[in-house]
Input
Amino acid sequence: MSVVPTEIASRRRIRRLACSVAALVGLGSVAVVAPAEASPLPSGPAELAQPAGPVPSTGEAWPAVEAEIDDLLQEFVAEFNLPGASVAASKDGRLVVSKGYGYANTEDGTLMDSDHQVLLASVTKPLITGPTVVEAMTEAGLPLDTPLYGQGGVYGTRFDADIAIGAANTGTPIEWYAAITVQHLLDHNAGFGSASKSGTMALFGIEEDELTYELVHRHFLQERALLHEPGTELNDVHYSNHHFGSMKLLVEELTGQDHTEYAAAAYLEPLGLAEEIEPKKNPYRPSTADTHEYVDGEPVPFVQDHSGGLGSFAGGYRGSVEDMVELMGHLADRYSPYELDRMGFWRSGVTPDMAWGDASIARLSHNGIISGSRVYVYMTVDGINFAIQTHISNGEAKLAMPGLFTEISNLLRDQDIPTHYDIWTGCTRPAMASGYAQVARHGTPAADYQCLFDQMTGAGYELDWLDVSTVGGRNIFNTVFVPDDGDSWRAFHGLDGAAYQDLFDQQVAKGMAPTRVDSYPVAGGVRYAGVFEPATAPFVAYHGLTKRAHQARFDELVADGYSPTSLSVVPVDGSIRYTGVYEKGVPGSFLVRSTLTPAQYQDEFDAQLRRGRSPVYLNGYNDQNGDAKIVAIFRSEPTGPFLARHGMPSAEYQAEWEDATDDGFRTTVVTAYQAGRRAAYAAVWRQ
Output
């Protein structure tokens, strides 16, 4: 078997497809009377939900639970007189709840949504600080049980004088300081109590604008006793912001960089979140929800001064609930629950039948409390990540958040949410029922195709036909799915020539062959879509050939016993290019035409029908002059009843498809081309 250059597209979450059977062309034109097929795709959900009740809501959630979640959160906002709240949850790595309630600003009426940045408060510790410290220690080649102070410690002798003064002032055994490790800080188990800015200013005789965290830490070492021997209070840790706040110094000692710059570059940027999650000292964005306070019992926005940023690693970041859930997903992919437990999360809810391996952790959680914000995050053993917040100081609301997590996570746990549903990717189609003999779709916008594909494959279907047509400068996908028979297959779309060739080489090495390959124009070039299935006969494929080169190759292959099974034509730089697939041993005689006008196609259809041939492949396109053309392959086999229609607008095609389906026919071919300003469909149905 030989192969001419072929291009292959990539995939994101599930196999990507786009396929159009391209047939080799000789000369001539064929027009077939082809019924239109494919039912219109359902429209996507509105970006903003209509206000439900007195508390407005925005965003979306899996439809089966959205109403119950709305009731819970609207009651939550109303009962505690909150300015607003937002909640997000993922299940098995897919965002399934993303909702906002009430207002981001009660004065100007800006609605709250799940993309609004809020103060993370102490949720910063497990989501930002712990992972950043682990990253810095790993880069330095140091284990987390490395000591902080003294010879061989991270700081070396940097704080020896302060420790000596502190031991004398507080009576803390000096060997306790030498025993403190990085892990003790992450566990809140170094014995640190609270640091003091006012005490630091008094000790060093400075003003507030002269404060640095190094001076804060030196004051702490000199005047604050350790509360217990490091590492000994495993069951009763002394939670202290200074454990995490001081890790600013640790990261800067290890990396030589500002701690927030290192966190952005080494941790958040590789995840694509450096612009979304940022220190609260940064200027507010339009997407930042205003902090609120109660004035005469009503929530009113106020502006906080976050310019100092001394305690960034203790609780000084902001981000949205969606950002928090996405970050938890990345952490869950990279670290074990036990490792996450050791870098700032709290383990809870231990149950024998629901635990993460040896760690026996049913869920990890943390909350955040700061002026103008209350936040809770959860990660569970069964793949649910959850974040909830309100942008006002309200202790009762914070106490109610764990109950909301329990109710919402139980709702999600009880739902069989299809694998395609993911608000992050915009794929929020409803579940597709399994068991249909065939499912046809036409006119699917290119941006929606991956979602359709995921919806169908998630319901147990495989791609049987794929065509990409260009109408009004937009690419649309026309597809037919059938129940997956269990044989291997690989679909792709959106690949340039080089990527398609790479995929082609990989798949051929695995014993696969392209069965349909379509080419279509995009800004700046051509893209390819198609399907690979197990090779059952010798084949040859090529892509991107000029008309002259295509004709020469066609003649060679036909003379050698090959016949075209897929042939696609695309306009490129004032000419047309061909992409084809040929197989050896295809039964029956055939005729191929690649430049037929719709009228010529009808004439050729009539002529071939008299010769006992029918269309088995069609590919609609508009040539370099914008004229509508059809590629057609006619064969003497298969035989039997069939229907064919062409030149149909979408609604007419839908009606023809319904009639044909009701009469027991199945769609085998569907394509489109631009006629005037609209799509004109051509199709073939067989019994």
Remarks:
- The CA atoms of residues 85 and 431 lie 29 Å apart.
